[in-house]
Amino acid sequence: MAKQNSDSRRAFLKNSLGALAAFTIVPRHVLGRGYLAPSDQLTKAVIGTGSMGRGHFGYAGTRVVALCDVDSSHLKLAVDQLGEKGKGVKTFSDYREVITLPEVDIVHVATPPHWHGIIAADAARAGKDIWCEKPMTATIGEGKRLVEAVQQHGRIFRLNTWFRFEDRFYGMGTTVKPIKKLVDSGLLGWPLKVTVSKHTGFDWKFYWIGKTNLEAMPVPKELNYDMWLGPAPYRPYNPHRVHQTFRGYWDYDGGGLGDMGQHYLDPIQYFLGKDDTSPVSVEVDAPQQHPDAVGTWRRITYTYADGCQIILDGDGADEKAAYIEGPKGKLYPGFRSDIPDLEKKLAAFPDPAPQQTDFVDAVKRRRKFALNEENGHRSATLVNMGKVALRLNRSLKFDPVKQEFIDDAGANALIYQPMRGPWTI
What we know:
It comes from Chitinophaga eiseniae. The chain has 425 residues and is an alpha/beta fold.
């Protein structure tokens, strides 16, 4: 039955995409009335209309033309929020119908993470550009497949965490740009150790903890629970598994690490110059995790081949830790340092290379976005390496080229986790 369903899904996509091929190879303005020229607003579909999806309706240069959610109450909230702008917006409960719409330029994937890889990859195959929420994918294997799909089909991909290029970076009191400049200058020396904890300005949100005593409850009539689960294993419905509290379960996310990890770690990857690689090991200090419900952890340590380390201090044990520590100096929250006259010394060094930070412009000009499928996959891999080590409660060695764990079949089994039929990526 699973194979039959999988074949049906492939046939659905093949037939739908074949019928729309003509639309995807010409500018929409030539298609007639109702289609905007590429120089005007881009159209987008939002898949997943919970609070995250609804929070991005007004992105400059875009217009919502389609909405999709497996919960009809969420869809109604989304339409109501759009108000007058919602007139004519199409609504769906199955994303596969949305991604074949010829009038859609961009698909915004705002579902729980266990759906990110499948929907984004299918959208790429359908010729859509993609805006995806973090974490990019729920597993390392899904990330590898998504990178392949985006690049094979020539799509523009944006991951929705922005701290590598704009906004104040949590407790650091600055954007990442001067931190990148400092690291590149060599004033701190090399290798570097970065400590991410409440003392350096980063809260790990350990309130995202799953429950181990959930009672089976009736599924609300407005929710297609089977579709909400999608590729995840079947579990009896309980409201704590879905919507606002899904992050507490391994099937859908990874607690505070899954929620905040890519926000915190992607900028570190950027300023350390690790966008094209991954750590060679991950060590964990944590209680034994429940197989279903996410728990807390004390410490996760990533080490790169050149000796650089990222320390995730979960319990805040190191109260005096610098955010970045090198053999020549330290950097603390608020851009404080033990290097005398740091800002004066730093002024003599060049600024980091400019980044493509306007997603609409990137789509129109077909230029890779600053945080794209490649570097986004590498920072998602940091999160997913940590999740694998926590679930197994052991330290692991990793090959950053093959993107596989070394001599550990149990860990590698979690790179491509089995998906419930008919779903594949």
